[in-house]
Recover the amino acids of this structure.
């Protein structure tokens, strides 16, 4: 069980820095996800850890060992590539056995290990097939097997499920979680798909387009308590507003244009002073929508239904509160028969609690 | 945002020591010797001013003619073939290509020798003509310029066919359709669309034939009786018979320069053709 | 013209009668055997040398200056054989290397390099670098990667290049003419000399055989190509 630590790592490409002075510690034995949009540098980070690229400055550690200048093949780290990179001229067995074969491990031992792991991956029927005859899902599992058979300290996964269809992807995510739990190897999973990241990760890091880490936290914390507007917008959906914080005695409100004064809880943070210009993030599922007038909520506003999108499990409403302001609301379709029929151009009320609001500095 | 280049930086991927032999070989056996020959001839030219005599130029001229005529003949024969193959034949293109390229793969000595049997006094052509009572006496075909050109043509035509075929094959057929659609006849389409677009292929083929034929030694000797001197003969004479490597070197350089000029001229001429 | 190429594939049989006598004579002729041997040795060595050196340069030249100098190898194809021949002869004379099999091999290898480099370089560049990365990720050194992964994936190109160099070397006349010297003789040189002296029926037989052999090689090559296309799909 080993951890990965990056210290002040900088990498340039074509004269432009992709990541600059990046510091990151990945705990051993956990399932870590690295999430970010295309071009955020997450793939670069992965490649640096694997050894395919060298940092222009800074160091990388595996546990206590400085691996910054260690060649790829000497690192006890294995990678599952995005398009699997299975050797086309070898069959499944030879592909999986490759790492052991190179190390000169005796044939009977290799045989035993390969069969065992292929059985685990449910590939017993494909052992001697050429790669070209396998389906996408099968190839993916071969790539996994090929990597973990070497019992690496860390397993790197570069968007491994990108080429699979939805159902298969969901299935594989669960399998990966089980796999990591059994092996207790450190998994570093890179993706741009937030759903994948939220599903598998014990904890995750979000990278913004400037190559910086915006937040590292457990998935729930990232979702419910984003630290920057970038994170709030990137993960899930949110209603984001800019306004001025007003603190008078025990009451804190934020004055938002066209929305009025919203009651919020004052966060215990240095930048939360009276008069500060801050952001408010409100997730659509935290808003209650009703045609009736209700009591018991901190905040209330009225609007007109502009768009209704039916998602099966939930329904999304876009409510026009003001000529220049829209709000998004998610309602879970809990009941078989609708409680209340809401239609286009209906006048509705929106309610939310102050505890469901997140205030952000930037 | 561009993806970073996939490049491993493992040190042992680059090994100058291992990679060097090929380079050394090339430098040593190609660039060095040729440079050497050039250098040698430059230093000796003052002493050998009689190199620039009429005889030499006559021989060079003869080789130029050989190269030029061969190239033109090849073009005349190859273009229709390539055209037909690329644009008319739908299936089995590869089979036809295979047969056409066969002379390319066979040792041209064997090919030249085969022609002996065609051109001989009792060979194919003469037998045929006599059978048909067109002539009474066998025509004397061997050891004539006709024989030389015939064989040159035969041996070099594949070099001309291939580039032209490649270019024509990749031609967007829709351009031709468009031309016809706009009212051009087949001939006009050919002159205005196909021909200009096939210039790159023609140019390549022309050079592929012109340059080697200039220095050709075997075919003129075999088919022409060895009485006439061409550049190839003369160089071999200088080096192997007369053992006069100075003269050989200088003459080679001279011929080389002429060839270079001619090639550049051809290139330029073709470049001018581009609209 | 097309029919012409067919025609010339026709075998020059002896015009008196059909007999295999000359074929037998050919097989037993000492000169021919020795010329054949020489040709094969030279061709084989040239292939081995040029392909091996070429691979070394391409696989290990990455990031050294060799990479940028790869263009130098293209000059061989652009230069008329006679100029190359003259250069070689002068060089060998200057360094006092006696002309013979060794110089033949040297010259043919040079020719071979001219074909090997473009063919292999193109194939190598097309190769997905992710395979080499995966291999090293799994623990292989670069050399092991070359042996297990790169070479097998480049095999079609290697075979093609080898065939081309082999045929070029066997058929080569001009360069061999200058570089062989008084003692060594390749098949083309032998044929040339014999024809000049006055054709014999044995030559007929030899020519026929050579014609057949070339056709065969090309046929095999073409079939391999077709098969390769089917396999890749």
């Amino acid at each position: 069980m080993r951890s990965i630590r990056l210290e002040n790592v900088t990498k340039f490409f074509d004269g432009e820095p992709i990541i600059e002075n990046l510091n990151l510690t990945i705990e051993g034995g956990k399932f870590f996800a690295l999430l970010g949009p295309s071009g955020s540098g997450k793939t670069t980070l992965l490649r640096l850890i694997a050894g395919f690229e060298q940092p222009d400055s800074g160091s990388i550690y595996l546990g206590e060992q400085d691996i910054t200048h260690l060649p790829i093949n000497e690192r006890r780290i294995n990678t599952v590539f995005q398009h699997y990179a299975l050797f086309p001229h070898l069959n499944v067995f030879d592909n999986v056995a490759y790492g052991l074969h190179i190390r000169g491990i005796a044939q009977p031992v290799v045989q035993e290990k390969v069969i065992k792991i292929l059985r685990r991956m449910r590939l017993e029927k494909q052992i001697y097939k050429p790669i070209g005859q396998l389906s996408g899902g099968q190839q993916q599992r071969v790539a996994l097997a090929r990597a973990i058979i070497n019992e690496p300290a860390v397993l790197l996964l570069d968007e491994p499920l990108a080429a699979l269809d939805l159902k298969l992807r969901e299935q594989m995510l669960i399998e990966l979680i089980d796999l990591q739990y059994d092996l207790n190897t450190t998994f570093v999973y890179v993706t741009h798909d937030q759903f994948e990241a939220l599903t598998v990760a014990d904890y995750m890091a979000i990278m913004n387009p400037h190559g910086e880490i915006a937040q590292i936290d457990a998935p729930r914390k990232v979702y419910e308590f984003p630290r920057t507007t970038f994170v709030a917008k990137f993960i899930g959906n949110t209603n984001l507003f800019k306004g001025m914080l007003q603190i008078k005695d025990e009451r804190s409100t934020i004055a938002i244009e066209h929305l009025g004064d919203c009651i919020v809880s004052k966060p215990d943070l240095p930048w939360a002073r009276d008069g500060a210009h801050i952001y408010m993030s409100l997730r659509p599922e935290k808003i209650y929508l009703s045609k009736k007038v209700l009591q018991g909520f901190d905040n209330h506003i009225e609007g007109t239904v502009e768009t209704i999108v039916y998602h099966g499990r939930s329904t999304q409403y876009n409510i026009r509160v003001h000529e220049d302001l829209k709000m998004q609301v998610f309602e879970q379709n809990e009941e078989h028969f609708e409680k209340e029929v809401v239609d286009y151009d209906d006048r509705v009320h929106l309610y939310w609690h102050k505890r469901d609001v997140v205030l952000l500095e930037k | 945002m561009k993806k970073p280049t996939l490049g491993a930086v493992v040190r042992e991927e680059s090994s100058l020591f291992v990679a060097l032999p090929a380079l050394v070989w090339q430098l040593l056996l190609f660039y060095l010797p040729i440079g050497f020959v050039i250098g040698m001839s430059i230093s000796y030219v003052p002493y050998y001013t009689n190199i620039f005599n009429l005889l030499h130029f006559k021989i060079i001229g003869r080789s130029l003619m050989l190269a030029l005529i061969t190239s033109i003949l090849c073009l005349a024969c190859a273009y229709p073939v390539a055209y037909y193959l690329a644009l008319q034949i739908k299936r089995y293109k590869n089979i036809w290509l295979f047969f056409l390229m066969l002379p390319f793969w066979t040792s041209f000595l064997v090919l030249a020798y085969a022609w002996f049997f065609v051109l001989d006094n009792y060979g194919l052509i003469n037998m045929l003509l006599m059978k048909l009572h067109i002539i009474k006496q066998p025509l004397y075909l061997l050891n004539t310029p006709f024989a030389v050109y015939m064989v040159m043509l035969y041996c070099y035509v594949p070099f001309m066919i291939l580039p032209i075929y490649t270019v024509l094959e990749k031609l967007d057929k829709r351009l031709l359709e468009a031309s016809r659609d706009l009212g051009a006849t087949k001939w006009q389409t050919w002159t205005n669309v196909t021909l200009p677009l096939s210039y790159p292929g023609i140019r390549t083929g022309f050079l592929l034939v012109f340059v080697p034929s200039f220095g050709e030694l075997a075919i003129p000797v075999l088919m022409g009786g060895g009485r006439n001197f061409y550049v190839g003969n003369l160089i071999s004479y200088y080096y192997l018979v007369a053992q006069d490597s100075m003269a050989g070197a200088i003459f080679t350089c001279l011929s080389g320069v002429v060839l270079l000029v001619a090639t550049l001229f051809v290139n330029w001429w073709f470049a001018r053709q581009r609209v | 013209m097309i029919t012409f190429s067919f025609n010339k594939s026709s075998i020059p049989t002896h015009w008196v009668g059909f007999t295999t006598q000359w074929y037998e004579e050919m097989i037993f002729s000492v000169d021919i055997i020795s010329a054949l041997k020489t040709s094969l040795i030279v061709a084989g060595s040239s292939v081995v040398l040029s392909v091996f050196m070429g691979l070394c340069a391409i696989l290990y030249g990455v990031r050294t200056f060799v990479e940028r100098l790869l263009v130098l190898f293209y000059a061989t194809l652009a230069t008329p054989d006679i100029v190359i021949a003259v250069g070689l002869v002068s060089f060998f004379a200057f360094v006092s290397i006696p002309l013979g099999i060794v110089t033949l091999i040297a010259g043919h290898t040079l020719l071979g390099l001219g074909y090997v480099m473009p063919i292999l370089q193109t194939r190598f560049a097309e190769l997905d670098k992710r395979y080499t990365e995966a291999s090293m990720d799994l623990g292989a050194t670069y050399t092991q990667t070359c042996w297990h992964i790169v070479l097998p994936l480049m095999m079609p190109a290697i075979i093609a290049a080898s065939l081309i160099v082999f045929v070029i070397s066997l058929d080569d006349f001009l360069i061999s003419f200058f570089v062989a010297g008084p003692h060594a003789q390749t098949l083309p040189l032998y044929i040339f000399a014999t024809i000049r002296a006055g054709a014999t029926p044995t030559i007929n037989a030899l020519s026929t055989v050579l014609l057949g052999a070339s056709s065969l090689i090309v046929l095999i090559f073409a079939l391999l190509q077709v098969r390769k296309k089917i396999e890749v799909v």
Notes: The CA atoms of residues 121 and 138 of chain B lie 6 Å apart. Chain B has twelve helices and no strands. Residues 1-11 of chain B have pLDDT under 50 and may be disordered.
